[in-house]
Amino acid sequence: MLYSFYIFDRHCNCIYHRRFSLVDDGATNTDNESDVAKLLFGVLYSLKNISSKLGDQSTNAGGFNYLKSFSTSSFRIHFLETLSNLKFVLITDNLIDNVRSVLWELYSTYYLNNIALNPLSPVDFKGDEKITNPNFISQTDQFLRSLPVYGGQ
Amino acid sequence: MAVYSLYILNKAGGLIYQSDNDRHPGVNKLTANDYLVLAGTLHGVHAITSRFTTSMIHSHDPNTTNIPASRLSGPNTNKSGLQSIETDHFNLYVFQTLTGIKFIVVTSPIPTTNLGRGELNVQLELANQLFKDLYVLYSDYVMKDPFYSIDMPIKNPHFDSKIKQLIN
């Protein structure tokens, strides 16, 4: 089951937040400045540091050690960081093991085409600017809702 | 699942015991100071994630709780805080006792090809089995040691050798 989707930019701001719900339509960009979003960023930052410090970085071990996910007893948080330091985060229930390909698809198809390659979209999201591009929102919504992990089946 | 390292944290987040697997090092050696920072960070992250639970999943489906019954029983009081971390090179599991002591093990990762639905939960159950054994050793060799003062570093050679047997 998919709970929510966050994007953080390289200035630590939450530039997109989408909460999903089975009972209503959820919410878009309502909790970007909330404590939860800030704490989530802090936790990801700390865990990323731990995994790069503790992980064996030698080339025979496979190079840089990336944080993939972490969990509590009620949810699992999946994490992907791009080379431009954008952080893509999906929150699901903890029966779902691996959504790396979904996170990559969200970045490589939907973010790149609608935001990065869009000349009208700002290069950097300053202050409290957020992703409000309707194409991005509707396309990612449609994509995430079509996935088997969305309903948890 | 090979165990790379074991850490024990007291209830204030201080590192009171550390043991590394000599045969499968798996993770980098850090300085003594970095291990203290690591322990403190995990303690903090555990406290923060335990505040998340309600806000992360609120209004999604109020009728279901996602905690399997098997995980509500047993000595693990870690119901809402950080339970596991998965990275490319290691997995990390956290177990918290009723008295707030945290056991943390770092294990080998699961190959991505083996990942299916629920595979990570199977690994978590394995880790919980290991935690039970560790907790028994801790109770027998540390808590029953009349010279041990609580929350202080564990320096007990019998405990050391038993832990080495268990994780090597």
UniProtKB/TrEMBL annotation, chain A:
InterPro entries: Longin-like_dom_sf (IPR011012), TRAPPC (IPR007233). This is Trafficking protein particle complex subunit. Pfam families: Sybindin. One of its GO terms (biological process) is endoplasmic reticulum to Golgi vesicle-mediated transport. CDD domains: TRAPPC1_MUM2 (cd14855). GO terms for cellular component: endoplasmic reticulum; Golgi apparatus; TRAPP complex. It is found in: Endoplasmic reticulum; Golgi apparatus, cis-Golgi network.
UniProtKB/TrEMBL annotation, chain B:
It is found in: Endoplasmic reticulum; Golgi apparatus, cis-Golgi network; Golgi apparatus. SMART domains: Sybindin. Keywords: Endoplasmic reticulum, ER-Golgi transport, Golgi apparatus, Transport. This is Trafficking protein particle complex subunit. PANTHER family: TRAFFICKING PROTEIN PARTICLE COMPLEX SUBUNIT, TRAFFICKING PROTEIN PARTICLE COMPLEX SUBUNIT 4. It comes from Candida tenuis (strain ATCC 10573 / BCRC 21748 / CBS 615 / JCM 9827 / NBRC 10315 / NRRL Y-1498 / VKM Y-70) (Yeast). SUPFAM superfamilies: SNARE-like. The lineage of its organism: Eukaryota, Fungi, Dikarya, Ascomycota, Saccharomycotina. GO terms for cellular component: endoplasmic reticulum; Golgi apparatus; TRAPP complex. One of its GO terms (biological process) is endoplasmic reticulum to Golgi vesicle-mediated transport. Belongs to the TRAPP small subunits family. TRAPPC4 subfamily. InterPro entries: Longin-like_dom_sf, TRAPPC. It holds the Pfam family Sybindin. Part of the multisubunit transport protein particle (TRAPP) complex. Its main location: endoplasmic reticulum.
